[in-house]
Structure formats: C-alpha cells, structure tokens
Amino acid sequence: MDGTEKKYTYEEFLEIIRTLRGENGCPWDRVQTHESLKPCMTEEAAELLASIRIYEQTGNPENMLEELGDVLLQVVMHAQIASEEGLFTMEDVVNEVSRKMVRRHPHVFGTGSADTPDEVLTNWEEIKKEEKKGKDWAASPLREIPRELPALTRAAKVLKKADKYYGQGSTYEQDVQALQTSVEALGKCDPAAGGKELEQILADMLMRVSDIARLGKISHEQALTDRIEDLIDKYEKTENGSRDNGAGSKI
User: Fold this and answer.
1) Where do the domains of the chain lie, and which CATH numbers do they carry?
2) Contact between 77 and 17 (Cβ < 8 Å)
3) CA angle at 141 for the pair 155 and 138, rounded to the nearest 5°
4) Per-residue pLDDT tens for 27-53?
5) pLDDT, tens digit, for every residue of 79-126?
6) How far apart are CA 206 and CA 192, in angstroms?
7) CA dist 57 to 50, 52, 138, 187, Å?
C-alpha cells in the first residue's frame, strides 16, 4: 500500500456497509438478505482456505489478507441486515463472541485448569453443553451438527458424538470388515442399472471411511483434496512438461 493512501478504520468500514445498504446506496447491496448471502459466505470461506494454501506454498500473505477481508465483509453485511431488522448489531456480535471466549477459557480468564489441547477441548464441550440448556433452538446432540457441512465432515462429527453420547461407536477392525463386505456386495451390482441398492452400498462405504478417518484422526476432506491434487499433477504436470497420456492406472 502506498504510504499516502488512506487507511480505513474498523468504524469507517461499518459506516461504508451502512452506506451501501442505505437509501442512496448500491442497488445490489440493498436487496441482499440473510438467505441470498448464504452462497457468498460459502464461496468466501473456500477462497480463504485457498489463500492459506497459497500462503503456505509461496510465503506471500497478500491473497490471505484480501480473503480475510471478504469473509469479514460477509459477517458485517449479515450484522447490518440484522440491525435493520431490529435483531442485533455488529457491536452485539463482537460483544457476544468476546463473552463466549472468556466464558469458554476459564483456564485463562478464570480459576479453571487445562494443561493440554485435549483438556481445553473437553472443557469447551462441557461449557458449551451447559450454555445450550433451556435454549428453545438447541437441537439434540446429533441434530445440532449442521446439515450444511460437507457430508463427509458431518458424518465424522455425527459418528464421534454418537460414540460419546450413545456408545454406538465401531472399532477400526469392525469398520474395515464392514468395508470388505460392502466391496463384495459392490462387485455383484450392475453399475449401469444404478438404483437404490448401489446408492445404499456406496453410502455405507462412505460412512465407514468417515469413521476410519475419525479413528485415525485424519481429515478425510483434506486427504481427498490432496489426492485430487496428486491426480491433477499426474495428468497436467509431468516431469517433461507434457500431459500424461493416461497410460496405466487412472487413479
């Protein structure tokens, strides 16, 4: 940034968003709603994750700086719309998350104790559970896991909580055995026919894979993302600079 270029403050940024949403503001910004902005938040979150990857690869934080701003823009837009609806303000959002951080870190701001990351997470979940008591919007332990999450991520979280609350967890060996059984059933299916049977077998296999990843403390979303990148490299970035001709295994 040029040293002579204006540097905006947080308060000025809030005012910019209020102006965009105002009577003489931007036609696009003025018609947005919580619902219409949902795809924007999803896209901006993904772009932020991409910017972190770019930073790790290049050491250049410029893109991450920009994408963090875009995520903040989405937060402020939702808060501004809520303010216009008489629900809450951005100041309320900041206050609420600050109170939550203090409340859920008693080992830092209070008299609690937690010497390891695992102890912190255990305390966090217990405090969170207490906070949700009596809330009319609070769902059951499994239903509170958002269905908007990627299915594999949601599956792992559901399986983890099912094990914790209902003692229904499988062992690694049981998951592997179930996968082997599913593979045998898969071999008897006609892929051209499709149908519910093939769909159910694949769904069961994905659930078992999610559980194996959970037990192994592996992010299957990240593992699959990395494998996809390997596959792209195989076809598009060979050592001699030419495209792979596809010889050998496709995957």
Assistant:
1) 8-103 (1.10.287.1080), 139-218 (no CATH)
2) yes
3) 120
4) 999 999 999 999 999 999 999 999 998
5) 999 999 999 999 999 999 999 999 999 999 999 999 999 999 999 988
6) 20
7) 11, 9, 40, 41
